[in-house]
Design a protein that fits this description.
The structure holds 2 protein chains of 2 kinds.
Chain A: H1 6-28, E1 35-36, H2 37-49, H3 68-102
Chain B: H1 10-37, H2 41-55, E1 60-61, E2 66-68, H3 74-99, H4 108-130, H5 137-163, H6 170-207, H7 209-214, H8 220-229
Antiparallel strand pairs in B: 1-2
Helix pairs in contact in B: 1-3, 1-4, 2-3, 3-4, 3-5, 4-5, 5-6
The chains are: A mainly alpha, B mainly alpha.
Chain lengths: ~100, ~230
Protein backbone atom coordinates (compact mmCIF):
# COMPACT_ATOMS: atom_id res chain seq x y z
CA UNK A 1 0.00 0.00 0.00
CA UNK A 2 2.76 2.40 0.99
CA UNK A 3 4.69 1.56 -2.18
CA UNK A 4 1.62 2.18 -4.32
CA UNK A 5 1.48 5.80 -3.21
CA UNK A 6 5.22 6.54 -3.09
CA UNK A 7 4.96 9.22 -5.80
CA UNK A 8 1.99 10.92 -4.14
CA UNK A 9 3.90 10.93 -0.85
CA UNK A 10 7.05 12.31 -2.50
CA UNK A 11 5.03 15.03 -4.22
CA UNK A 12 3.44 16.04 -0.92
CA UNK A 13 6.84 16.17 0.80
CA UNK A 14 8.35 18.19 -2.07
CA UNK A 15 5.55 20.75 -1.96
CA UNK A 16 5.72 21.08 1.84
CA UNK A 17 9.54 21.41 1.69
CA UNK A 18 9.20 24.06 -1.02
CA UNK A 19 6.76 26.07 1.09
CA UNK A 20 8.99 25.69 4.16
CA UNK A 21 11.97 26.99 2.18
CA UNK A 22 9.97 30.04 1.15
CA UNK A 23 8.94 30.74 4.75
CA UNK A 24 12.53 30.30 5.94
CA UNK A 25 13.93 32.52 3.18
CA UNK A 26 11.38 35.27 3.71
CA UNK A 27 12.00 35.22 7.46
CA UNK A 28 15.80 35.16 7.38
CA UNK A 29 16.92 36.83 4.16
CA UNK A 30 16.98 40.57 4.60
CA UNK A 31 16.20 42.43 1.41
CA UNK A 32 14.46 39.45 -0.23
CA UNK A 33 11.91 41.20 -2.44
CA UNK A 34 10.78 38.09 -4.33
CA UNK A 35 10.79 40.08 -7.56
CA UNK A 36 10.58 38.15 -10.83
CA UNK A 37 13.93 36.75 -11.98
CA UNK A 38 13.10 38.27 -15.41
CA UNK A 39 13.18 41.73 -13.84
CA UNK A 40 16.32 40.98 -11.84
CA UNK A 41 17.94 39.75 -15.10
CA UNK A 42 16.85 42.94 -16.87
CA UNK A 43 18.48 44.92 -14.04
CA UNK A 44 21.75 43.07 -14.65
CA UNK A 45 21.50 43.80 -18.39
CA UNK A 46 21.18 47.49 -17.53
CA UNK A 47 24.20 47.28 -15.21
CA UNK A 48 26.38 45.43 -17.73
CA UNK A 49 25.46 47.72 -20.61
CA UNK A 50 25.79 50.88 -18.52
CA UNK A 51 22.30 51.98 -19.55
CA UNK A 52 19.51 52.54 -17.04
CA UNK A 53 16.53 50.16 -17.41
CA UNK A 54 14.32 53.04 -18.63
CA UNK A 55 16.54 53.42 -21.70
CA UNK A 56 15.57 49.99 -22.99
CA UNK A 57 12.62 50.77 -25.23
CA UNK A 58 10.57 48.05 -26.96
CA UNK A 59 11.71 47.34 -30.52
CA UNK A 60 8.11 46.43 -31.34
CA UNK A 61 5.44 48.40 -29.49
CA UNK A 62 3.54 46.24 -27.04
CA UNK A 63 0.39 46.48 -24.95
CA UNK A 64 0.92 46.39 -21.21
CA UNK A 65 -1.73 45.41 -18.67
CA UNK A 66 -2.84 48.69 -17.07
CA UNK A 67 -2.45 47.35 -13.53
CA UNK A 68 -0.98 44.46 -11.54
CA UNK A 69 -4.50 43.20 -10.89
CA UNK A 70 -5.29 42.92 -14.60
CA UNK A 71 -1.97 41.20 -15.19
CA UNK A 72 -2.79 38.71 -12.42
CA UNK A 73 -6.23 38.19 -13.98
CA UNK A 74 -4.69 37.40 -17.38
CA UNK A 75 -2.16 35.01 -15.81
CA UNK A 76 -5.05 33.30 -14.04
CA UNK A 77 -6.89 33.03 -17.37
CA UNK A 78 -3.85 31.36 -18.89
CA UNK A 79 -3.71 28.86 -16.02
CA UNK A 80 -7.49 28.34 -16.24
CA UNK A 81 -7.23 27.52 -19.94
CA UNK A 82 -4.55 24.92 -19.14
CA UNK A 83 -6.67 23.60 -16.26
CA UNK A 84 -9.72 23.20 -18.51
CA UNK A 85 -7.62 21.25 -21.04
CA UNK A 86 -6.09 18.98 -18.40
CA UNK A 87 -9.32 18.47 -16.43
CA UNK A 88 -11.39 17.93 -19.56
CA UNK A 89 -9.08 15.29 -21.00
CA UNK A 90 -8.56 13.46 -17.70
CA UNK A 91 -12.35 13.44 -17.23
CA UNK A 92 -12.80 12.09 -20.75
CA UNK A 93 -10.23 9.35 -20.17
CA UNK A 94 -11.69 8.49 -16.78
CA UNK A 95 -15.15 8.18 -18.34
CA UNK A 96 -13.76 5.95 -21.09
CA UNK A 97 -12.02 3.73 -18.53
CA UNK A 98 -15.21 3.45 -16.47
CA UNK A 99 -17.21 2.60 -19.59
CA UNK A 100 -14.74 -0.15 -20.43
CA UNK A 101 -14.96 -1.58 -16.92
CA UNK A 102 -18.77 -1.54 -17.07
CA UNK A 103 -18.78 -3.56 -20.32
CA UNK B 1 13.19 33.05 -18.43
CA UNK B 2 11.51 35.74 -20.45
CA UNK B 3 13.89 38.17 -22.03
CA UNK B 4 11.89 41.38 -21.94
CA UNK B 5 10.98 43.35 -25.06
CA UNK B 6 13.75 45.79 -25.95
CA UNK B 7 16.40 44.01 -23.88
CA UNK B 8 18.07 42.25 -26.83
CA UNK B 9 19.75 44.13 -29.67
CA UNK B 10 17.89 43.59 -32.97
CA UNK B 11 20.79 41.60 -34.43
CA UNK B 12 20.44 38.99 -31.69
CA UNK B 13 16.64 38.99 -32.02
CA UNK B 14 17.13 38.15 -35.70
CA UNK B 15 19.62 35.35 -34.94
CA UNK B 16 17.24 33.65 -32.48
CA UNK B 17 14.27 34.04 -34.84
CA UNK B 18 16.32 32.43 -37.64
CA UNK B 19 17.04 29.47 -35.35
CA UNK B 20 13.47 29.22 -34.03
CA UNK B 21 11.53 29.41 -37.31
CA UNK B 22 12.75 26.17 -38.97
CA UNK B 23 12.22 24.31 -35.68
CA UNK B 24 8.64 25.61 -35.51
CA UNK B 25 8.01 24.58 -39.13
CA UNK B 26 9.35 21.09 -38.37
CA UNK B 27 7.13 20.99 -35.28
CA UNK B 28 3.99 21.93 -37.27
CA UNK B 29 4.85 19.28 -39.87
CA UNK B 30 5.36 16.62 -37.17
CA UNK B 31 2.16 17.66 -35.40
CA UNK B 32 0.11 17.23 -38.57
CA UNK B 33 1.72 13.83 -39.14
CA UNK B 34 1.10 12.57 -35.60
CA UNK B 35 -2.54 13.72 -35.59
CA UNK B 36 -3.17 12.24 -39.07
CA UNK B 37 -1.79 8.89 -37.92
CA UNK B 38 -3.63 8.74 -34.60
CA UNK B 39 -6.44 11.11 -33.56
CA UNK B 40 -6.20 9.69 -30.04
CA UNK B 41 -2.96 11.63 -29.71
CA UNK B 42 -4.99 14.86 -29.59
CA UNK B 43 -6.20 14.49 -25.97
CA UNK B 44 -2.64 13.61 -24.91
CA UNK B 45 -1.44 16.75 -26.66
CA UNK B 46 -4.17 18.65 -24.76
CA UNK B 47 -2.96 17.35 -21.39
CA UNK B 48 0.74 17.84 -22.03
CA UNK B 49 0.15 21.28 -23.57
CA UNK B 50 -2.26 22.16 -20.75
CA UNK B 51 0.52 21.70 -18.23
CA UNK B 52 2.73 24.13 -20.16
CA UNK B 53 -0.09 26.69 -19.93
CA UNK B 54 -0.61 26.07 -16.21
CA UNK B 55 2.96 25.80 -14.97
CA UNK B 56 4.38 28.65 -17.03
CA UNK B 57 1.78 30.96 -15.49
CA UNK B 58 2.80 30.16 -11.91
CA UNK B 59 5.33 32.58 -10.51
CA UNK B 60 6.78 30.91 -7.47
CA UNK B 61 9.11 32.29 -4.80
CA UNK B 62 12.49 30.61 -4.52
CA UNK B 63 15.37 30.37 -2.04
CA UNK B 64 17.29 33.10 -3.86
CA UNK B 65 14.73 35.68 -2.70
CA UNK B 66 13.32 36.14 -6.18
CA UNK B 67 10.46 34.51 -8.10
CA UNK B 68 10.41 32.42 -11.22
CA UNK B 69 8.09 30.02 -13.02
CA UNK B 70 8.38 26.38 -14.06
CA UNK B 71 8.11 25.61 -17.78
CA UNK B 72 6.03 22.42 -17.78
CA UNK B 73 7.61 21.21 -21.02
CA UNK B 74 8.73 17.77 -19.77
CA UNK B 75 5.53 15.80 -20.48
CA UNK B 76 5.18 17.19 -23.98
CA UNK B 77 8.87 16.52 -24.67
CA UNK B 78 8.52 12.87 -23.68
CA UNK B 79 5.22 12.37 -25.51
CA UNK B 80 5.81 14.32 -28.72
CA UNK B 81 9.48 15.34 -28.84
CA UNK B 82 11.09 18.78 -28.79
CA UNK B 83 9.77 20.16 -32.10
CA UNK B 84 6.06 19.79 -31.32
CA UNK B 85 6.82 21.09 -27.83
CA UNK B 86 8.35 24.17 -29.48
CA UNK B 87 5.03 24.84 -31.25
CA UNK B 88 3.04 24.63 -28.00
CA UNK B 89 5.58 26.87 -26.24
CA UNK B 90 5.37 29.37 -29.09
CA UNK B 91 1.60 29.65 -28.54
CA UNK B 92 2.05 30.19 -24.77
CA UNK B 93 4.86 32.70 -25.26
CA UNK B 94 2.90 34.58 -27.92
CA UNK B 95 -0.04 34.90 -25.50
CA UNK B 96 2.30 36.19 -22.78
CA UNK B 97 3.96 38.64 -25.21
CA UNK B 98 0.68 40.06 -26.48
CA UNK B 99 -1.36 40.23 -23.30
CA UNK B 100 1.01 40.14 -20.33
CA UNK B 101 4.02 42.16 -21.53
CA UNK B 102 6.15 39.14 -20.55
CA UNK B 103 8.67 38.80 -23.32
CA UNK B 104 7.77 40.54 -26.56
CA UNK B 105 7.44 40.00 -30.28
CA UNK B 106 11.04 40.93 -31.15
CA UNK B 107 12.46 38.63 -28.44
CA UNK B 108 9.88 35.88 -29.03
CA UNK B 109 12.38 33.93 -31.16
CA UNK B 110 14.94 34.00 -28.32
CA UNK B 111 12.33 32.93 -25.75
CA UNK B 112 11.09 30.12 -28.02
CA UNK B 113 14.68 28.90 -28.42
CA UNK B 114 15.23 28.74 -24.65
CA UNK B 115 11.87 27.39 -23.43
CA UNK B 116 10.64 25.55 -26.51
CA UNK B 117 13.78 24.23 -28.16
CA UNK B 118 16.98 23.96 -26.07
CA UNK B 119 15.24 23.01 -22.79
CA UNK B 120 13.11 20.30 -24.43
CA UNK B 121 16.09 19.11 -26.53
CA UNK B 122 18.15 18.62 -23.35
CA UNK B 123 15.25 16.73 -21.76
CA UNK B 124 14.67 14.68 -24.91
CA UNK B 125 18.35 13.62 -24.99
CA UNK B 126 17.98 12.23 -21.46
CA UNK B 127 14.72 10.52 -22.43
CA UNK B 128 16.33 8.82 -25.46
CA UNK B 129 19.27 7.80 -23.31
CA UNK B 130 17.11 6.23 -20.59
CA UNK B 131 14.04 5.05 -22.55
CA UNK B 132 15.36 1.57 -23.36
CA UNK B 133 17.26 1.00 -20.14
CA UNK B 134 15.99 -0.50 -16.89
CA UNK B 135 15.70 2.97 -15.30
CA UNK B 136 12.26 3.47 -13.74
CA UNK B 137 9.76 5.37 -15.95
CA UNK B 138 9.02 7.94 -13.25
CA UNK B 139 12.71 8.62 -12.61
CA UNK B 140 13.07 9.21 -16.36
CA UNK B 141 10.10 11.63 -16.40
CA UNK B 142 11.53 13.44 -13.36
CA UNK B 143 14.97 13.86 -14.95
CA UNK B 144 13.60 14.93 -18.34
CA UNK B 145 11.27 17.50 -16.78
CA UNK B 146 13.79 18.94 -14.33
CA UNK B 147 16.52 19.17 -16.97
CA UNK B 148 14.23 20.71 -19.60
CA UNK B 149 13.34 23.35 -17.01
CA UNK B 150 16.94 24.00 -15.93
CA UNK B 151 18.33 24.16 -19.47
CA UNK B 152 15.70 26.71 -20.41
CA UNK B 153 17.18 29.08 -17.85
CA UNK B 154 20.77 28.17 -18.72
CA UNK B 155 19.93 29.11 -22.32
CA UNK B 156 18.40 32.44 -21.27
CA UNK B 157 21.62 33.17 -19.35
CA UNK B 158 23.65 32.24 -22.42
CA UNK B 159 21.53 34.43 -24.71
CA UNK B 160 21.89 37.46 -22.43
CA UNK B 161 25.61 36.85 -21.83
CA UNK B 162 26.23 36.67 -25.59
CA UNK B 163 24.46 39.98 -26.09
CA UNK B 164 25.98 41.66 -23.03
CA UNK B 165 29.52 40.39 -22.30
CA UNK B 166 31.04 41.98 -19.19
CA UNK B 167 33.72 44.62 -19.69
CA UNK B 168 36.12 42.59 -17.58
CA UNK B 169 35.89 38.85 -18.00
CA UNK B 170 33.80 39.05 -21.17
CA UNK B 171 31.20 36.41 -22.01
CA UNK B 172 32.07 33.89 -19.27
CA UNK B 173 31.95 36.46 -16.50
CA UNK B 174 28.60 37.71 -17.74
CA UNK B 175 27.28 34.15 -18.16
CA UNK B 176 28.15 33.32 -14.54
CA UNK B 177 26.36 36.46 -13.35
CA UNK B 178 23.18 35.62 -15.30
CA UNK B 179 23.35 31.98 -14.18
CA UNK B 180 23.50 33.28 -10.61
CA UNK B 181 20.16 34.99 -11.15
CA UNK B 182 18.30 32.51 -13.32
CA UNK B 183 19.73 29.06 -12.55
CA UNK B 184 20.00 29.36 -8.75
CA UNK B 185 16.40 30.55 -8.51
CA UNK B 186 15.31 27.71 -10.75
CA UNK B 187 16.91 24.68 -9.02
CA UNK B 188 14.20 24.08 -6.36
CA UNK B 189 11.45 24.86 -8.87
CA UNK B 190 12.86 22.35 -11.37
CA UNK B 191 13.02 19.62 -8.71
CA UNK B 192 9.40 20.17 -7.60
CA UNK B 193 8.24 20.39 -11.21
CA UNK B 194 9.99 17.08 -11.97
CA UNK B 195 8.27 15.31 -9.08
CA UNK B 196 4.82 16.76 -9.82
CA UNK B 197 4.95 15.89 -13.53
CA UNK B 198 6.20 12.37 -12.73
CA UNK B 199 3.02 11.99 -10.66
CA UNK B 200 0.89 13.34 -13.53
CA UNK B 201 2.56 10.86 -15.87
CA UNK B 202 1.59 8.08 -13.47
CA UNK B 203 -2.09 9.02 -13.87
CA UNK B 204 -1.78 9.19 -17.66
CA UNK B 205 -0.15 5.77 -17.57
CA UNK B 206 -2.93 4.37 -15.39
CA UNK B 207 -5.79 5.81 -17.46
CA UNK B 208 -4.47 5.65 -21.01
CA UNK B 209 -1.58 3.17 -21.36
CA UNK B 210 -2.64 2.22 -24.92
CA UNK B 211 -1.85 5.64 -26.38
CA UNK B 212 1.59 5.62 -24.72
CA UNK B 213 2.25 2.20 -26.27
CA UNK B 214 0.93 3.19 -29.73
CA UNK B 215 3.04 6.34 -29.80
CA UNK B 216 6.01 4.17 -28.66
CA UNK B 217 6.75 6.54 -25.79
CA UNK B 218 7.90 3.63 -23.66
CA UNK B 219 7.94 -0.11 -24.43
CA UNK B 220 4.83 -2.15 -23.60
CA UNK B 221 6.81 -4.23 -21.09
CA UNK B 222 8.01 -1.15 -19.26
CA UNK B 223 4.55 0.40 -19.18
CA UNK B 224 2.95 -2.83 -17.94
CA UNK B 225 5.64 -3.18 -15.28
CA UNK B 226 5.02 0.39 -14.07
CA UNK B 227 1.24 -0.23 -14.05
CA UNK B 228 1.55 -3.38 -12.00
CA UNK B 229 3.66 -1.52 -9.43
CA UNK B 230 1.09 1.28 -9.09
Amino acid sequence: MAYKYTLELLTGIAIVAFCAMFLYTSATMSGAEFAGSDNVGSGLVAKLSGNPVENFQPLIAQWEPPSGEIEACLFALQAAFGGILVGGVFGFWFGQAQGKNAE
Amino acid sequence: MHIMEGFLPWQWCLVWWIIALPCLMLGIYQLKKVLALDREALPLLGVTGGFIFILSSLKLPSVSGSCSHPTGTGLSTISFGPWITAVVCAIVLLFQSLFLAHGGLSVLGANIVSMGIVGPLAGYSVYRLLRDTSVNIYVTVFLVTALADMFTYVTTSLQLALAYPAETGGFMSSFILFMGIFAVTQIPLAIVEGIVLALVFKYILMLKPDILIRLKIFSEEKINAARSES
